[in-house]
Specification:
17% strand, Glyco_hydro/deAcase_b/a-brl, signal, TIM Barrel, Polysacch_Deacetylase, two-stranded parallel sheet, alpha/beta, six-stranded parallel sheet, hydrolase activity, acting on carbon-nitrogen (but not peptide) bonds
């Protein structure tokens, strides 16, 4: 029997009308969900997939990075209507602080619905390559540790959840960062681009595929067609 493989999709922002590089219209997103359903793709919580047990055929996980307010205003009603699950990768420094970001109350409501899992996207979404280039080795190591541990502890404290997953900002990771993530208590890490995920994927750099705004339905179909064959 062939080993299971899954497709992990990445979104960022949602808008009723406008699309952009990281913004998908709600109508386009719903068309994509309809396509997945029509082609017998099953949306499964990311936490279930990474265990690699009893993976259904054509399994798809939906992840959403950053924590933009449109996750609550635009995406969440769709999740409620369709009863599908997503994982949000959040950098908590923005929550209830930045005008574009979700609030802790919104995150708490979504988590309690059972439709949303919240995990870490570091504390403030740094570019680790730039940080390493401008800091001493000791300062950089301390900075990385802060980004990883502060995000995890704050999300757990505010939402009463267990944070075991990390999405790397800008998809930047390396062996040193992976080792730091493991020391900070993360079991799984996720890249920003790649192909299908499978049991032999690097557990701290599991591939995901970003879905950009403006992508036609045929373009989306080409993106996800392989696991749905």
């Amino acid at each position: 029997m062939a080993e299971p493989s899954v497709l992990i999709l990445v979104y960022h922002r949602f808008d009723p009308v406008k699309s952009g590089l990281t913004t998908v219209t709600t109508s386009a997103f719903e068309q994509q969900l309809d396509w997945l359903a029509a082609h017998h793709c099953k949306i499964v919580p990311l936490q279930n997939l990474v265990q690699w047990h009893d993976i259904p055929a054509h399994a798809v996980a939906i992840t959403v990075d950053d924590g933009h307010e449109s996750v609550f205003t635009q995406l969440y009603p769709i999740l409620q209507q369709r009863h599908i699950h997503v994982t949000l990768f959040i950098y908590p420094s923005a929550i209830s602080n930045a005008s574009y970001a979700l609030t802790w109350a919104q995150l708490d409501e979504m988590v309690k619905s059972g439709l949303v899992d919240v995990q870490s996207h570091t504390y403030w979404h740094p570019d680790f390559r730039k940080e390493r280039a401008t800091r001493s080795p000791a300062d950089y190591s301390a900075f990385v540790n802060m980004q990883l541990t502060r995000s995890k502890s704050l999300l757990e404290q505010k939402l009463g959840i267990s944070v075991t997953m990390l999405a790397w900002p800008y998809g930047i990771y390396d062996p040193g960062l992976e080792a730091a993530a493991k020391r900070a208590g993360y079991q799984w890490g996720f890249a920003f681009a790649g192909g299908q995920a499978h049991p032999e994927s690097d557990a701290l750099a599991i591939p995901r595929i970003p879905v950009s705004g403006g992508l036609s339905l045929s373009g989306f179909a080409a993106l996800v067609a392989e696991p749905a064959q």
